[in-house]
Design brief:
Strand order of the largest sheet: 2-1-5-19-20
Number of helices: 23
Helix content: 25-40%
Shape: elongated
Largest sheet: 5 strands, mixed
Structural class: alpha+beta
Strand content: 5-15%
Oligomer: single chain
């Protein structure tokens, strides 16, 4: 049986209430500052005297940092997004209107400037009121409320199960609050306490502090709050949800007028001021400040990328939970590389290329990302979708960031197709060859008896099963210059180059400038491109648009690769700077080899893609995989490098022809029978870069090595002349290839194509992994 509670200490009885009331005077002498503790509190604590109660408490407590939102800024200092659990923007007392200060004092603690943290008159009034009515009222001073808010903040930050929010307090909590109030009054001035309180207290929802509340309900700063606005906000503190003017305007108005009445009664305002204010309407003008990347609009995907960078970086905390707390509570200022005005244009162009609201486009998307050569700064990161939860009705919303790898919130990359071909050319030049050298591109079939040089593999070589890297036109199985083969993106030419060089050199060039296979065959995750299967030279690896933009920025920067970076600095509210990646560049390619490569890539971008629409010098490379489920144009000036990608997200593999984009409904219209990079990706790049290049430098790519003058000899017809009729037809078709290892796929597609016009279609005999293929 529970022990019977003494009526002397039971505050539920009238006798207990009387004892509690008279107990006030008994404890007045215990605390020099006049701390008043009800006698019933002594019984609750199990301590026998007021002295025991007080001495059992520490004299002060640690004030942990007050949560503040973190802000993400673009390169010009414009706010992209905020992160918070408590929306708070601390301000100095001088930046809070006098009307607001008077209102909060009048309604919460009218003798604030008279007491020392504890108000005996207020306690007496509350006790008498509680004795004579069924309602309950408190007597906490502003100082006590400030203390309690600080304690609650500490409990949240430390993960304490203890809670001293209103309604959960024990008597021991009240005693502690009283003592700390007295201590704080000795440490801080009245104005400092008032400032701290007004910046700490909850006004509504997640709006903490008077500045956030003023913005939320009136779209003004705290310093500009007028009398009636101040009275309304001051009235909300008691019951934030009940007196919310948006949800409960009538209750809010009534509460505001009572506050005005209290201000008049205490002499804070005149009768004339009261009469005018009480007749006014609420006059709310709400504004919102949503937390997180969903409020970032077109910058949402870049914002998500930055968020993931911070949450995975131990410089911002030992655990993910620590890093989340810092982001949402630490008041960080995160400065980034984003050109937000240009990013808005990129998103607009991506939506124009692939309409996210078109019924036919549920699994067809567009991505556009830009990097600055020489710095690695990410300038844009946009796509045609809205950063929001996916919708079954349309493909217009997704959290997938098509530009980056999976671990950073991305879609995991897409097959690069013929954008991989420049790396074979670099290996060709690396081994002492030239762009003007002739290559015999007649061979159509390779078998297991063919050996491919690969110095980094066991035995220094690799072999292939039967492999037919197809062109789409019979006219290109012939001898041609390396320049011609790359210009028209001829599979058989690239493969013959690769056959004559070290496959490891090709793969190494790609790895050194940031291209990682995000979906290697048989792999557990992203890995350097594997040279064991020669088909990688025509684009079987899955790479991200961000990596592509950064890699091709190397070609724009005379062979110097700069790792892409999004964050330039992170500083917390106290001025502490956190370590972030700095510019990291390294010379990875011989500048003359890059200049020679650019000689061809410049012609591709200028003559075949831009055709006068993008101011030069510009250069770039097309790319399309089998089935056109991944199409690219990656191009650059010396000031900006951009990767434009258009393709499927879920249906990337070519083993199922229903996913092929040839002749399908796209943008609610019938697509061409042969979709390639020139259909959607290249026009997207042109639309964007025609404006973007104007903002950045456009210098020369360097001089191309000249072919030596030939010795006089009988003139022969040169079948490799790029002006012949077959060449001129190849501008809009798509080349093709098949990976050699038949054990890794059962793909039986019977028609592989290249983006370049006039190239041959024929049936491959040995498939590669689903999604393999290259071409154009």
């Amino acid at each position: 049986m529970a022990a019977k509670k003494s009526p002397f200490f039971d505050t539920a009885t009238t006798l207990g209430k009387i004892v509690a009331f008279f107990g006030i005077s008994a404890l007045c002498g215990v605390l020099a500052a006049g701390m008043i503790v009800p006698v019933a509190a002594i019984a609750k604590t199990g301590l026998t005297t007021g002295n025991n109660i007080v001495s059992a408490l520490p004299s002060t407590f640690e004030k942990l940092p007050i949560p503040q939102p973190s802000r993400v800024l673009d390169t010009e200092g414009k706010e992209i997004a905020t992160f918070y659990e408590q929306n708070r923007d601390p301000v100095k007392l001088k930046d809070i209107s006098p009307e607001m200060r008077k209102a909060i004092v009048s309604v919460e603690d009218e003798r604030f400037y008279e007491h020392n943290g504890i108000d005996p008159k207020g306690i007496a009034r509350a006790v008498v009121g509680n004795l004579t009515s069924s309602s309950r009222s408190g007597a906490s001073t502003l100082t006590q409320q400030y203390v309690n808010n600080l304690l609650v903040n500490n409990q949240i930050l430390t993960g304490s199960k203890e809670s001293t929010v209103s309604g959960n307090k024990e008597y021991s909590d009240k005693i502690r609050e009283l003592k700390y109030a007295v201590a704080i009054e000795k440490e801080m001035s009245k104005d400092e306490i008032l400032e701290g309180y007004l910046n700490l207290v909850l006004f509504s929802g997640r709006e903490y502090g008077v500045q956030a509340a003023a913005q939320r309900f009136f779209s003004v700063d705290a310093k500009d709050l007028n009398l009636q606005q101040s009275a309304m906000l001051a009235g909300m503190v008691q019951l934030p949800n009940v007196y919310n003017p948006i949800n409960n305007p009538e209750r809010s108005l009534d509460r505001r007028n009572k506050v005005l009445g209290n201000m008049y009664r205490t002499g804070a305002i005149t009768k004339k001021e009261y009469d005018k204010a009480v007749k006014s309407k609420l006059g709310t003008d709400p504004s919102s400040s949503a937390s997180g990347c969903m409020a970032a609009g077109d910058d949402g995907y870049f914002c998500d990328y930055v968020t993931n960078l911070i949450l995975k970086d131990k410089n911002f905390g030992k655990t993910k939970e620590d890093r989340q707390n810092l982001l949402f509570r630490g008041g960080l200022t995160i400065k980034t590389t984003l050109n937000s005005s240009l990013n808005k244009q990129a998103a607009k162009d991506a939506r124009q290329a692939i309409d996210p609201h078109a019924k036919s486009n549920k699994d067809i998307y567009a991505s556009l990302v830009s990097v600055e050569p020489g710095t690695g700064k990410i300038l844009t990161m946009a796509q045609n979708t809205e950063y929001a939860p996916e919708s079954k009705e349309s493909g217009s919303r997704t959290f997938y960031n098509f530009a980056v790898e999976s671990r950073l919130g991305g879609a995991g990359g897409f097959q690069g197709g013929s954008t991989m071909k420049p790396f074979t050319t670099l290996a060709w030049l690396h081994e002492g060859n030239h762009m003007y050298d002739k290559i015999n591109a007649k061979r159509e079939i390779f078998t297991a008896s063919d050996k491919w040089r690969a110095s980094c593999l066991p035995g220094g070589q690799t072999a292939t099963a039967k492999w037919e890297p197809k062109n789409a036109s019979r006219g290109f199985y012939r001898t041609m210059t390396v320049d011609t083969g790359l210009y028209w993106s001829i599979n058989s030419a690239t493969v013959q180059e690769a056959k004559k060089v070290d496959l490891c050199t090709i793969a190494d060039y790609a790895t050194k400038i940031g291209l990682i296979d995000q979906k290697p065959v048989g792999g557990d995750g992203p890995a350097p491109i594997n040279p064991a299967n020669p088909s990688f030279v025509i684009g079987t690896a899955s790479v991200t648009p961000l990596a592509q933009a950064a890699a091709f920025a190397t070609f724009a920067n005379k062979g110097e690769y700069c790792k892409p970076r999004a964050i330039t600095s992170v500083e917390d509210k106290d001025g502490t700077n956190y370590k972030v990646p700095q510019k990291e560049c390294s010379q990875e390619i011989d500048p003359q080899h890059v200049a020679d490569l650019n000689g061809t890539l410049k012609k591709i971008a200028t003559n075949r893609v831009s055709k006068g629409q993008v101011a030069g010098p510009i250069a770039g490379k097309t790319g399309t995989n089998n089935g056109a489920t991944s199409t690219w144009f990656v191009g650059y000036s010396t000031g900006i490098s951009s990767a434009a990608w258009v393709g499927r997200l879920k249906g990337q593999g070519e083993d199922d022809k229903k996913n092929w984009m040839h002749g399908k409904m796209i943008n609610d219209q019938r697509a061409p029978k042969m979709v390639d990079s020139s259909t959607y990706a290249a026009p997207l790049w042109v639309d964007f870069m025609s404006k973007a290049v104007q903002q950045y430098e456009r210098n020369s790519f360097g001089s191309v090595s000249k072919a030596p003058k030939p010795k006089p000899k009988p003139k022969e017809k040169d079948s490799s002349d790029s002006s012949n009729s077959n060449d001129n037809k190849s501008d809009s078709k798509k080349e093709d290839s098949k990976k050699e290892d038949s054990k890794k796929s059962d793909n039986k597609s019977d028609s592989k194509k290249s983006e370049n016009k006039g190239k041959e279609k024929s049936k491959p005999t040995t498939p590669a992994k689903p999604g393999d293929g290259s071409n154009g």
